[in-house]
Amino acid sequence: MRKSFGDKVIDVIIVFIMILVVIATRYPLWNTLVISFNDALDSIKGGIYLWPRKWTLYNYQSIFRNDTVFRAFLVSVSRTVLTTILNVFFSGLLAYILSRKEFVFRRFLTVFMVMTMYINAGLIPQYFLYRSLGLINTFWVYIIPSMVGAFNVIVIRTYINSLPASLVESAKIDGAGEMTIYFNIIIPMCLPVLATVALWVAVGAWNSWFDSYIFAPKQELSTLQYEMMKIIASSMQMGVKQPDYLTEASQQSRNTVTPNSLRAAMTIVATVPVLVVYPFLQKYFVTVNIGSVKE
Amino acid sequence: MVTSKANSRKEFFRQLQKQKSLVLLSIPFFIYIFIFNYLPLWGLTLAFQNYKPYRTFFEQEWVGLLHFKNLFTDPDFYRVMRNTLGMSIINLALGFITAIGFALLLNELTGSLYHFKRVVQTISYMPHFLSWIIVCGLVSNMLSMDDGIVNALLLKLGLVNEKIHFLGKPEYFWWIVGFTNVWKSMGWNSIIYLAAITSIDPCLYEAAAIDGYGRFGRMWHVTLPGIKSTIIVLLIMNAGWILNAGFEIQYILGSNGLVLDVSETIDIFVLKRGFARSSFSFGTAAGMFKTVVSTIILILCNKIASWLDEERLV
Predict the structure, then answer these.
(1) A94-114: string of b/e by CB count within 10 Å (b at 16+)?
(2) What is the distance in angstroms between the Cα of A126 and the nearest Cα belonging to chain B?
(3) B contacts of A80 (beta carbons < 8 Å)
(4) Who's near A87: CB < 8 A, 6+ residues apart?
(5) Considering Cα of B53, then B55, then B58, then B59, what sign does the dihedral take?
């Protein structure tokens, strides 16, 4: 269909609205990026919106030179990597077990698992459980409670069910054990869905802060997101003190950095991994999103 | 009868024997799920006790429904319920209107504008993946009195005479939460409508064009009715989350004394009462109330939605 003049006018209006949407979506982060690369003292004067006035890498150097922030960064990275590997491995294994039609406890275990998506004892009973397991204020509180995700299991199982059943059967006839089948057939065949679940778990683990706040408040176990939370909370006058290192950092370096600039640099460090990863997620996310509604 | 029962039991054990390795593999999962998801349910007994940490379970004082009675007579409880419902309804309404509108407009970008559409779409998903902490930081930057772009723009356009302290005004708070939610999830939520639009029969558009409908006419009379059932089903399903107005944004942006009255939701109430004042029993009771009511609403809404979907009533 050729577009008439009126159609073209409408197109222009829609494109204009879309450009506004894109600006509104991107500007807040862009502005933070600009501030993080701008000289801190210069930023105080204001008026920095779209481009740095006085370029510097000093804000980034200061946060990575800071032991507290660097440690939080390492904790964030290690919890994300470990949770991702374990969660994908175990969710995949459970999905494989549940995909075996002849498995006698298949129905029972499926219901047992799906029920957990609806029932939730709440925060305080959860805290008591972790305390009696000795998980409070240990690194493992980030890892052990999130080794299997019910939703991930369902997504992977759906994918396994779409594979030809003869693959597993012929391997069984050849005498392969369950773990051999899982490692040599299921994992290689399910790579697309496993990769998606992995990115998904990784984004969730990287972004979480509430578990640090409640279950691991010890400073050595703090994560990047939790440090961000403390900084933002202190700026909102929440009765939370601004972390000492921010104050110290700005004093030590004779005011060449300010809490605001450090916060901008930290925001970027905490965001970039997610920004790199999310475009890869969208394709599969879309199908999962729609599938879960249609079910 | 007896023999067939015995037979089926025999058959079951024969199966069990044959699937030994599968059964063995599944045992750790049973245990894991039991410990981390079912065992904490035992902790709900706290809600009916006057829990003191130094007492053993058998020495605890049982108080029946006292904590629930206290909860329902607590004026703060009604305040946080009002806030929760208020923000939920704003989120629901704003979220739906913007996501549907965005999907409709995106859908109009066809032909040579197709690639532009893809780019806009990808960018619009981005905020969905940012953590609430980061989003709260960005919002407080944008609305700041010092150098926030919103105040700068409003001043420049002459819409206001002096800068507004957005985050310190109770009357703005719910709307800030609402529009932040729009910012974070509009693009993401539009995906499902775009998918629903693609399943509309193209003939309908041609017929409407022959009948003399313009672009907006077709949007209104073909596209919108075409996705009506998706909209209604999603609306009902999302209404199931009505007690989950959010936690992080209210906790972080709403923590200053100026807006505390309108910002606290039921989740914050549970957290503050349970931990900050160490009245674990009361906190557990409040949390239990929320979870039970919320789960009932959620299941009801899902049932209604799937019933409507099956009966093709919408």
Answers:
(1) bbbbbbbeebbbbeebbebbe
(2) 6
(3) none
(4) A146, A147, A148, A149, A152, A197, A201
(5) negative
Candidate from B44, B124, B134 with C-beta closest to A228: B134
Half-sphere exposure for B243 (CA within 13 Å, toward CB): 21
Q: At residue A265, what are phi and psi to the nearest 5 degrees?
A: -65, -40
CA–CA gap between residue A285 and residue A157 (Å, rounded) = 16
Q: Do B23 and A233 touch (CB under 8 A)?
A: no
Contact A100 B35 (CB under 8 A): no
Are B216 and B171 within 8 A, CB to CB? no
Among the partner-chain residues B125, B129, B291, the one whose CB lies closest to the CB of A120 is B291
What pLDDT does residue A121 have?
A: 84
CB contact under 8 A, A14 and B109: yes
pLDDT band for A167, please (50, 70, 90 cuts).
confident
The beta-carbon neighbor of B284 closest among A125, A236, A286 is A125
Please indicate whether, in this complex, the C-beta atoms of A129 and B43 are within 8 angstroms of each other.
yes
Alpha helices in chain B (DSSP H): 2-18, 20-33, 66-72, 75-108, 114-125, 132-142, 149-156, 170-198, 202-210, 215-218, 224-226, 228-239, 248-253, 260-263, 266-271, 280-311
- pLDDT for A122-137, tens place per residue? 888 999 999 999 999 9
Question: What average pLDDT does this structure show over A192-209?
Answer: 92
Minimal Cβ distance to A27: which of B149, B214, B234? B149
- Please give the ipTM for the structure prediction: 0.88
- pLDDT at position A238: 53
Tell me how close the Cα of B4 comes to any Cα of chain A, in angstroms.
18
| Inter-chain CB proximity A21 and B280 less than 8 Å | no
A151 neighbourhood in chain B, CB within 8 Å: none
Q: What is the dihedral of CA A237, B133, B85, A120, to 10 degrees?
A: -120
- Pseudo-torsion of CA B13, B18, B21, B22, nearest 10°? -80
Shortest Cα distance, chain B CAs vs residue A69, angstroms: 16
List, in sequence order, every residue forming a beta bridge with B49; answer none if it has no partner. Answer: B62
Please indicate whether, in this complex, the C-beta atoms of B138 and A28 are within 8 angstroms of each other: yes
Q: What is the pTM of this model?
A: 0.88
